[in-house]
Amino acid sequence: MATSIFKLGTKASTARFTGPAFVNTLVSDPGGVYNLAVHDVKFEPGARNNWHSHPQGQILLCTGGVGYYQERGKPPRRLEKGDVVEIPPDAHHWHGAAPDSVFYHLGITPNANRGQTEWYGPVSYEEYRQAAKPAF
Amino acid sequence: MATSIFKLGTKASTARFTGPAFVNTLVSDPGGVYNLAVHDVKFEPGARNNWHSHPQGQILLCTGGVGYYQERGKPPRRLEKGDVVEIPPDAHHWHGAAPDSVFYHLGITPNANRGQTEWYGPVSYEEYRQAAKPAF
Asked: Which domain holds residue A98?
């Protein structure tokens, strides 16, 4: 069973997530000394964020549980503790937990002052089901 | 007992560390898309790096075990899983494990192309002993 490293964050907006997820902001100083944002995210089983993109890209460090990452038009990738994802700038993508496991990752956004995350609506049940095979 | 998240890295140089430590480079693209370096470090009990500084500063995310962080002229800080350290640019400092525990942290260096780490020689036994009170 995956355990947390950081304190549980605040519940993520249902406008941007399907299912319960919690976001703990560890670092955030856009335009500051580090110009960096670091978030620790816990997804409950089955939870995922909506399709979105980052103008500066983002790094995911998977720290516990099992989850998925998918870029638009590409096959989903299964993720476990220790996996690293380099999300290219402006790539439409989503990430979230397996149906039968929590999922923890750190999200590292460098060059934080280079624009905001853009959001494109929920991952459909069918898109999620395809990612979750054969767990479903 | 603290357990690892990422694969064990390569042994750190004895020219820059006292005692065994292992560094796994998860991201490194100075001047690239992310302009970022992320290292996962495992310190064996008692191991620590030499006094050093980063021109761009660095963020430490403590992911397991017990360790210390100290800036020159300031009292040492005891670190545990979940702690975050914001190291200012050019601050002379060291970090490492308690004498009786391993210590794991991620080191995040934003703006990676803004110069190299500078090194200033080992943490003395007396400096380490002061940090490790009352564990010693």
From this structure: 10-132
Cβ atoms within 10 Å, residue A75: 8
Q: Which of B1, B4, B5, B105 has the highest number of chain A CBs within 10 A, making it the mutation to test binding with A? A: B5
Assess contact for B103 and B97: CB atoms under 8 A: yes
| Residue type for position A53 | S
Query: pLDDT tens across B31-49, in order?
Result: 999 999 999 999 999 999 9
ipTM of the complex: 0.95
Q: Is residue A3 part of a domain?
A: no
Distance CA A24, CA B18 (A): 34
- B13 is a domain residue: no
Q: Do A111 and B6 touch (CB under 8 A)?
A: no
Domain CATH for A124:
2.60.120.10
What pTM was computed for the model? 0.96
